[in-house]
Design a protein that fits this description.
Order of helices and strands: HHHHHHH
CATH class: Mainly Alpha
Number of strands: 0
Shape: globular
CATH superfamily: PucR C-terminal helix-turn-helix domain
Radius of gyration: 14 Å
Distance between the termini: 11 Å
CATH topology: Arc Repressor Mutant, subunit A
């Protein structure tokens, strides 16, 4: 559980399994985990795109808030999100792809976590 909290950069506190069920499950090894993680492999060297994607999702897909927190223009956020879609085939702006984007990011981060 500690690895999940660290990977997802959650604030300090006491967490129970029920608090992190999805995140924990997505961090477990297996073929689906590996496939999900590999979907974001094209972003491995693109910290700007990964940071934008993470902030965008953390901000409930609010592009203006994301832009403000990243100190960029909202159009830059739009451009970066289009790049994420172009490179991965996952469009974080589309509602129907959101669960897969979130799952792929959780698996990707778990794979990269040192724990």
């Amino acid at each position: 559980m500690l690895d999940v909290v660290r990977t997802h950069q959650l604030p300090p506190g006491v967490y129970e399994l029920d608090d992190l069920l999805l995140e924990y499950q997505l961090s477990r090894p297996g073929p689906a985990h590996d496939r999900l993680a590999s979907m974001l492999a094209p972003l491995a060297e693109r910290d700007d795109l990964l940071a934008t994607l993470r902030r965008y999702l953390a901000n409930a897909r609010n592009r203006r808030q994301t832009a403000a927190e990243l100190h960029v223009h909202a159009n830059t956020v739009d451009y970066r999100l289009r790049q994420v879609g172009r490179l991965t085939g996952l469009d974080p702006v589309r509602d129907d792809q959101l669960p897969r984007v979130v799952a792929a990011l959780a698996a990707f981060d778990a794979r990269r976590s040192p724990g």
